[in-house]
Amino acid sequence: MMPKKENVIVEKTELFADRIVNMYKYLLNKKERNEAILKQVVRSGTSIGANAAEGQYAQTKADFLTKMSIALKEANETKFWLNRLYKGGFLSTKEYKSIITDNEEILNILVKITGTTKENLRK
């Protein structure tokens, strides 16, 4: 079976996962770090893309909605952990604004995807 054509959410979440992993490596090498939060943010931040990718091969529209809903929850959790890193002084304002902007964009796209999918399932 040929893979489906790439779509915006899959591309954005893959790039975001790469950014999260790079941020993790960068912050892990700093003298002051919070490894518990770093492990949480890398888990949730990479899970967004994993669920979006799984959604590409969903068996039904309901299965697709489930994967996208999980991705949305993971994106929201990632926002929580990024805020903890920023408020804890582990990310500079510039670093935070850059990555949280990407996170917010992904959140907005996933809200639209899940909303539209729910509407389509009601029809």
Structural account:
With 123 residues, this protein is mostly helical. The chain is built from 4 helices and no strands. The protein has helices spanning 8-28, 35-55, 61-87, 93-122. Helix 1 packs antiparallel against helix 2 (35-55), helix 1 (8-28) packs antiparallel against helix 4 and helix 3 (61-87) packs antiparallel against helix 4. The relative contact order is 0.16. The mean pLDDT is 94.
Key terms:
123 residues; mainly alpha; 80% helix
Specify the overall morphology.
elongated
Mean pLDDT: 94
Which structural class best describes the helix and strand composition?
Answer: mainly alpha
SS elements, strand count? 0
Pick out the low-confidence regions.
none
Order of helices and strands: HHHH
Which percent band covers the strand fraction?
Answer: under 5%
Count the DSSP helices: 4
Radius of gyration: 15 Å
Major sheet attributes: none
Separation, N- and C-terminal Cα atoms = 29 Å
* Helix percentage: over 70%
